[in-house]
Amino acid sequence: MLALQLTIPPLPQFITVGYATWRPGEIHFKRNFQVFDVLFIQKGTLFMTEEDISYEIKAGNILILEAGKTHWGHQKCVEDTEIYWLHFIHPVPTVTIDTKQITGSTIIKKGTDFDLAPAEQSMFLPKFIQTELSSFIPTLQAMVALHEKSSLLGALPLNSLLAHLLTLLQNTLIESSAPTRSSQHSKKIESYLKEHLLQSHSSQQIEAELGLNFDYLGRCLKKHTGMSPTQYLQYQRVEKAKSLLLYSNDTVPYIAEQVGIIDYNYFIRLFRKQTGLTPGAYRQKKQSYV
């Protein structure tokens, strides 16, 4: 299944939404504009072509027509066809990927109170999908009703509803995509390393516990998190140490032991490498922040 990857921020911005019944003999006109056009088919069939790909969009189908691509109706409706449509804009170019490339375990940089800009992230939307529209209809109905009022104070609620609808689309995409074998094995070693954070690990021990070749597990983990087993373990240990620094009065050497690192000097180096600060400086800055 194909997915559209949109870089965020910024979030997509709402333009318009509507509901209509297309009668037999009606057909969509040809156009190309810098707007995303999302079609939700509640009843009947709509026949659309985008560039060189034709779609027969039936009840329960959702199709996202992309900004900058020419689309048109290649066949007239043959029955009453009920649709919701939604238009939004997004300034960053879209990337089309296979859903197998979506790695939900990939660790991204967390925002802190020292950051001055949000980290670059992504959202994923289905290009064309069959689903149960009942979970979308209440939000679409609310958007249509709010848009018809066209009040000054309606802009923020409409964009909030758009964000909610896009979240529903992303959830539907993920739920409909069967997990790959590599993602399942990545989850296994992720869980194992988290559960055994305080212990030292050997490749033979992990192979015996999980019943899989260690090198293969390492490749799965790297594919889905961007980290080797050692890097992932170090990352999780520093994350736990950050929490202990903020929410306990324990000394730094004691916290190092609490996250499974006996060598205090190594802990300092590792913490500084991952956060840019020593543990003491991290605690001081966080506790003095107002």
From TrEMBL:
- Keyword DNA-binding applies: yes
Gene3D superfamilies cross-referenced by the UniProt entry: Homeodomain-like
Q: Which InterPro entries does the record associate with it?
A: Homeodomain-like_sf (IPR009057), HTH-like (IPR037923), HTH_AraC (IPR018060), HTH_AraC-typ_CS (IPR018062)
Locate the HTH araC/xylS-type domain: which residues? 187-285
Report keywords, A-Z. Answer: DNA-binding, Transcription, Transcription regulation
Listed SUPFAM superfamilies: Homeodomain-like, Regulatory protein AraC
Highest taxon listed in the record's lineage = Bacteria
Gene Ontology MF, one: DNA-binding transcription factor activity
The protein in question is named: AraC family transcriptional regulator
Q: Which organism is it from?
A: Paenibacillus psychroresistens
